[in-house]
Amino acid sequence: MSLQTPTLRTARLRLRPVDDADADDLFTLHSNAHALRYWDAPPWSERVRADRFITTSRQMAVKGTGVRPVVERVSDGAFIGWCSLNPWSSEHRSTSLGYCFNEAAWGHGFATEAARELLRWAFDTLDLNRVQAETDTRNLASARVLEKLGFVREGTLREDCVVNGEVSDSWVYGLIRREWRSSPEPGAAR
To answer: Taking a C-beta distance cutoff of 8 angstroms, is the pair 87, 96 a contact?
Structure first.
């Protein structure tokens, strides 16, 4: 089953399918060691990784296993990051949320706004029951994003990743459909 990557819009952001023209921005984002300091994979050192990311994003949608739209500012069309729902299970009505934003976008509420709109689409369109997310326990900003979205911390995966050569723990968060708060943010476009 194919899963159409949505084009969604809020007052400040547009989420849209990834495009070949996003390769340079994706490479810039994923080659930034500081932005990816809590990531479970090293920063990219080869631009071909961006092309693989784009191909994989398209394949996820075609196979029906997930979506990974890029996020851009409405005001100037600037690429600021991406969100994802992957893997999506129609049988269990569940998926995992992920996101990555460039440093210039941090602290402006963009991750929360983009993820909220993607979650709204997922609960309404895919009829999901559960969305899960994980974050490195040192990444307090990401934990705050998840909690603002209504996710509940469900536990800790001890020593589940090696980040930059250091063993780290992850928090597991869950959001259940009946707990989903879909009230729009002030000024959000519907």
So the answer is: yes
